[in-house]
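In response to the reviewer comment on reproducibility (Comment 2.3), we provide here a single inverse folding case reported in full, input and output, so that an independent group could reproduce the run without further information from us. The structure tokens appear first.
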């Protein structure tokens, strides 16, 4: 006859300390996953706004270029001369501007901040910003006075 081992006197189970450690580990993991999801949503929103601001900025620069090409070049222009080109309306959540004090004028050898005699080249900095400030895009734009038979003589 085979002898049997006696059954243990207590049942095998999890202790309270083991359960607290397991719940703590799961809680930390859950917080990390939720923080990662929140960050990805925020970064996705910022990226979308930057992409839209870049597109709006390119459209704004093209509208300024079209204005200049169609005879809208302003000799010794101030930064407000090109702020609202024809045919361009920014989206509701974005503001478009020519950065104040960014106008520069070519004098034949270098760019200068004041215009003594317009040589037909101007440089300005255009900026598009989302209304919540999460996306700001800038572009330096060089404008050339068109020289066509219908335009006034170029210097």
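Designed residues, in position order:
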């Amino acid at each position: 006859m085979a002898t049997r081992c006696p059954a243990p006197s207590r049942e095998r189970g999890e202790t309270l300390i083991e359960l607290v450690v397991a719940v703590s580990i799961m809680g930390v993991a859950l917080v990390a996953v939720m923080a990662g999801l929140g960050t990805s949503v925020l970064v996705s929103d910022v990226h979308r706004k930057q992409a839209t601001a870049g597109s709006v900025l390119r459209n704004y620069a093209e509208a300024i270029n079209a204005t200049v090409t169609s005879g809208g070049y302003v000799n010794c222009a101030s930064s407000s001369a090109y702020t609202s080109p024809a045919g361009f309306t920014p989206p509701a959540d974005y503001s478009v501007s020519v950065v104040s004090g960014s106008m520069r004028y070519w004098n034949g050898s270098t760019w200068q901040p004041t215009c003594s005699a317009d040589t037909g080249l101007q440089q300005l900095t255009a900026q598009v910003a989302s209304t919540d400030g999460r996306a700001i895009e800038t572009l330096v734009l060089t404008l050339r006075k068109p020289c066509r038979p219908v335009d006034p003589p170029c210097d």
